[in-house]
TrEMBL record:
<keyword id="KW-0520">NAD</keyword>
<feature type="transmembrane region" description="Helical">
    <location>
        <begin position="160"/>
        <end position="178"/>
    </location>
</feature>
<keyword id="KW-1003">Cell membrane</keyword>
<dbReference type="GO" id="GO:0005886">
    <property type="term" value="C:plasma membrane"/>
</dbReference>
<keyword id="KW-1133">Transmembrane helix</keyword>
<feature type="transmembrane region" description="Helical">
    <location>
        <begin position="323"/>
        <end position="342"/>
    </location>
</feature>
<keyword id="KW-0812">Transmembrane</keyword>
<dbReference type="Pfam" id="PF00146">
    <property type="entry name" value="NADHdh"/>
</dbReference>
<dbReference type="InterPro" id="IPR001694">
    <property type="entry name" value="NADH_UbQ_OxRdtase_su1/FPO"/>
</dbReference>
<feature type="transmembrane region" description="Helical">
    <location>
        <begin position="119"/>
        <end position="140"/>
    </location>
</feature>
<comment type="subunit">
    <text>NDH-1 is composed of 14 different subunits. Subunits NuoA, H, J, K, L, M, N constitute the membrane sector of the complex.</text>
</comment>
<comment type="function">
    <text>NDH-1 shuttles electrons from NADH, via FMN and iron-sulfur (Fe-S) centers, to quinones in the respiratory chain. The immediate electron acceptor for the enzyme in this species is believed to be ubiquinone. Couples the redox reaction to proton translocation (for every two electrons transferred, four hydrogen ions are translocated across the cytoplasmic membrane), and thus conserves the redox energy in a proton gradient. This subunit may bind ubiquinone.</text>
</comment>
<comment type="similarity">
    <text>Belongs to the complex I subunit 1 family.</text>
</comment>
<keyword id="KW-0830">Ubiquinone</keyword>
<keyword id="KW-1278">Translocase</keyword>
<feature type="transmembrane region" description="Helical">
    <location>
        <begin position="281"/>
        <end position="303"/>
    </location>
</feature>
<protein>
    <recommendedName>
        <fullName>NADH-quinone oxidoreductase subunit H</fullName>
        <ecNumber>7.1.1.-</ecNumber>
    </recommendedName>
</protein>
């Protein structure tokens, strides 16, 4: 095996992991600032200029807090839960193409950890695994509120994965590939998939809110009913891992939506830019464009949280099974019919 290849991948993984942590950390700051803006307040403004050091203060607080493990909990699983939540949140970034390949010293370096030909299925596998961290933490806590939260999270994820999968089937009929890299390359210029699958995108983003437990689908963490939900008994960095995992999931979901529906790192005039600014700066501009799209989606996640009230649980189940799933099935059928007609004529 080429040792240079291994070093390149190790550096790329380290950079993506570091960026994910920094974005998760400052998403907590952005969340509070967005909430303050929408509620006509200032938000954090004490720690550093404009409160910029508030995430660092929060992280230090988490590290300094006392570690408490409930006496009657399953201690091993109690510790495994937050780690599993954090692991499944991070591994979703492995198949996302962060930019076109850069050329350094004659060597072509793809800005993607791995381009597997079933990248979409990999993302869905990771999404399915993410609920286990919540389930294990909620059950191992030996707390009735945590257990109720874990049951809610499992049923919610199972319900909304069906509609999300069906929305992706329609997209795959259009793109004819499961590789995220090929899906992005097929959206060159303005040929973004959201123009061909607007209903599929709406279904996907609604399900993404439910899969990441974000408001108005934050029933597993409902403070007014469950006192914080599955992490009620957690403290210190175990609690920090759960909170970080939620924001990393939001970041990864935004990256997946940007990749599948909004062209990924593609932008108008990209060919001209690549021709005139060189083989290193050009792809990095595409990466910056992708992150701009991701930040726009993260802002949308936060905007919705502080605008729309939480659903009741019966409303959440009704929406998932009786509204989103029939719409997703209809979208698949209509897409198939349109493609058949286009190919025939």
């Amino acid at each position: 095996m080429d040792i240079t290849f291994v070093i390149e991948k190790f550096i790329l993984v380290a950079i993506i992991f570091g960026i994910s942590l920094v974005i998760a950390m400052y998403s907590t700051y952005a969340e509070r600032k967005v909430a303050a803006f929408l509620q006509d307040r200032l938000g954090p403004d004490r720690a550093g200029p404009a409160g910029m050091f508030q995430p660092l203060a929060d992280g230090l607080k988490m590290f300094m807090k006392e570690e408490i493990i409930p006496t009657h909990s399953n201690k091993w699983l109690f510790m495994v839960g937050p780690g599993l939540a954090m692991l499944t949140a991070c591994i979703g970034t492995a198949v996302i193409p962060w930019g076109s390949a850069i050329t350094v010293g004659g060597r072509v370096i793809p800005l993607q950890v791995t381009d597997i030909n079933v990248g979409v299925l990999y993302i869905f596998g990771v999404v399915s695994l993410s609920v286990y961290g919540v389930m294990i933490g909620g059950w191992a806590s030996n707390n009735k509120y945590s257990l109720l939260s874990a049951i809610r999270a499992a049923s919610q994820n199972i319900s909304y994965e069906v509609a999300m999968g069906l929305s992706i089937i329609a997209l795959l009929l259009v793109t004819n590939t499961l590789s995220l890299k090929e899906i992005v390359e097929g959206q060159h210029g303005w040929h973004w998939n959201v123009l061909y699958q607007p209903l599929g995108f709406i279904l996907f983003i609604v399900c993404a809110f439910a899969e990441t437990n974000r408001a108005p689908f934050d029933l597993p963490e409902c403070e007014t009913e469950l006192i914080g939900g599955y992490h009620t008994e957690y403290s210190s960095m175990k609690l920090g891992f759960y909170l970080f995992a939620e924001y990393i999931n939001m970041f990864v979901s935004s990256a997946v939506m940007s990749t599948l529906y909004f062209g990924g790192y593609n932008y108008p005039g990209m060919d001209w830019v690549l021709l005139h600014v060189g083989p290193v700066i050009g792809p990095l501009i595409g990466t910056a464009v992708l992150f701009a799209k991701i930040f726009a989606f993260i802002f949308f996640f936060m905007w919705v949280r502080w605008t729309i009230p939480r659903f009741r649980y019966d409303q959440l189940m009704h929406l998932g099974w009786k509204v989103l799933m029939p719409l997703a099935i209809a979208n698949v059928i209509i897409t198939g019919i349109v493609i058949a007609i286009v190919e025939k004529f």
